[in-house]
Structures are given as C-alpha cells and as structure tokens.
Amino acid sequence: MSIHILTGHLGSGKTEVAINLAVYLAERARCSPASDAAVALLDIDVVNPYFAAREARSFLESQGILVAAPSLKTTTAALPTLPSEVYQLLHRKDLQIIIDVGGDSTGARLLKSLQKYLEGEPLQVYGVVNTKRPSTARKQDILAYLRDIRHASGLAHTALIHNTHLLDETSPEDVHEGQTILENVALECGLPIAFTAVMKELALQFRINNAILAMERHIKPPFVVNSH
Predict the structure, then answer these.
(1) What region does 97 belong to: left with phi over 0, alpha with psi -120 to 50, or beta?
(2) Of 38, 53, 204, 219, which alpha carbon lies 20 to 30 A from 71's?
(3) pLDDT tops 70 at residue 166
(4) Where residue 199 falls among pLDDT bands split at 50, 70, 90?
C-alpha cells in the first residue's frame, strides 16, 4: 500500500488534481509489469461538497479506479460522516490510495480519525497551492496555511503541489508567477515541489525544474453546471 494525501484551501483545485493523479497512477500501473497495485480515490472532503470526486465517479471507475465518496446529503448534514467504503479500502494492502481532504483545519481534523489506518504505511502528504486565491497568494500566507493543516491533522506535509490557476482564464504568466512564489515557499520550509499541475493545453509551454502533471478537467464549477 502507498497513500497520497492531498490538502488544499478552497479554490486550490485539489480535487481536480486528485482525480488526475489517480488517472496517472492507474495508467502507470497498467504500463508497468512489476506493478499490479490498483488505485483508489477516497474523497473525505466534507468542507466543500460541491467540488467532489463523486462527480467523476463514472469516469474514474471506467479507468479501473475505486472510488469512495460521501453523498451530498451526508456532507451537508450537521454532523458529516464518512462512508464505510473509506474504512474498507484503507484495510486493503494491495492499493495505491489517494485521499482528498477537506480544505481547512476542520476538514483536516478528519485525518485524525483515520490515523490508525495510516500509521506505518508509506505516506505522502501534499499541500496543493493556488497562488491566485487570496488566502494563499503570498509566501507567508502559504506557510501559515501549511502550519494550520499540520496542527489540525497531526501530519506534516512531505511535499508541495503547485496548481496556480484561474480556471479557463489561466495564462502561462499566471503559472510562471505562481511557480516563483512556490519555489520560495519550498526553500523556506524545506519541502520539495512534487509537481506542477496544469491543463494539457498549457503543459507544453513550460520548462521548470520539477515534474509536470498535465491535466484534463473533470469537475465543473457549480455556476457552470447551473447555467445549463
């Protein structure tokens, strides 16, 4: 088992990154004779139920990816609960697991309830950062956010994911500016940038020192869904 935990502020694009990372890991597993580990995406984000992995469940399952995600009714309840599938999948040792965590300290506290499943497992904890969001636009704000999540979850980040975007209005300049900010954050906190996530149409326009995850959009913002 290997576990990849993604944390990120509201608007960071964390869920889109989680979905595309799951697809990448599943494709890599299919192409590697030495790897037979299936991929599972666990959506435990009860903070923002409208940008949820369940929107892409059919697509993910068509790629052979297991999905556990709470229903909208469950996440908007006074006391949100996680589906039993989350715990069942965490018991399995034959999986590569991605966990999509709620965007603030309240959501991150849910990780504490899962710690007995996480202890002793190969664990990567990523901070997904969009520098076009006011709460993570500056180095000091990003560092403060990483501290808040660490204190709430009891887990320290192991790497950063750069995901600066303005949805369909994202320009190469936006990503380059965000890259500079996040590289400064990485130097300050001593964490590597695991990869920079950009949509496929922009991915070929960059030459940077870390890996690039070329993404496709699977989550539609509520205002796009409701406009049709």
Answers:
(1) beta
(2) 38
(3) yes
(4) very high
So where are the chain's domains?
Answer: 2-225
Model pLDDT, residue 26:
95
Contact between 1 and 92 under an 8 Å Cβ cutoff? The reply is yes
Give the 3-state DSSP-derived string for 10-62, with helices as H, strands as E and coil as C. CCCCHHHHHHHHHHHHHHHHHHCCCCCCEEEEEEECCCCCCCCHHHHHHHHHH
Q: What is the pLDDT of residues 21-63, one digit of tens each?
A: 999 999 999 887 666 689 999 998 876 665 567 778 899 999 9
What CATH class does 2-225 carry?
alpha beta
Q: Scanning the structure block, which residue is given the tokens 């002793």?
A: 120
What's at 101, amino acid-wise? V
